[in-house]
Design a protein that fits this description.
Layout: H1 2-21, H2 26-29, H3 35-51, H4 59-85
Helix pairs in contact: 1-3, 1-4, 3-4
């Protein structure tokens, strides 16, 4: 569990930095929430990963942070990349 805890923090930081680097108009083009919304979600998720641990009383907040970051990475990030690169041939 300690390995998962320490591995989740860089994943959260990566998700936030990726959201920060993307163009603001790419989010509506990908039919996702706005850039400020995803910046808040990934920043809050990363904060939850840093401030809480899965073995403490705040485990629910840690899990919620992990889910938020993973939703961005699995759902939003591929759509943003697709919109900005164009269709594959």
């Amino acid at each position: 569990m300690t390995v998962i805890y320490w591995a989740a923090i860089p994943v959260g930081v990566f998700a936030f930095l990726h959201a920060l680097k993307q163009r603001a108009d790419a989010y509506p083009a990908a039919e996702r929430m706005t850039k400020p919304a995803w910046l808040g979600i990934t920043a809050g998720g990363t904060a939850g990963l840093v401030l809480f641990s899965p073995s403490s009383l705040g485990a629910m907040f840690w899990i919620a942070g992990l889910v938020a970051v993973l939703v961005y990475l699995v759902d939003v990030r591929p759509k943003l990349n697709e919109v900005q690169r164009g269709p594959k041939w």
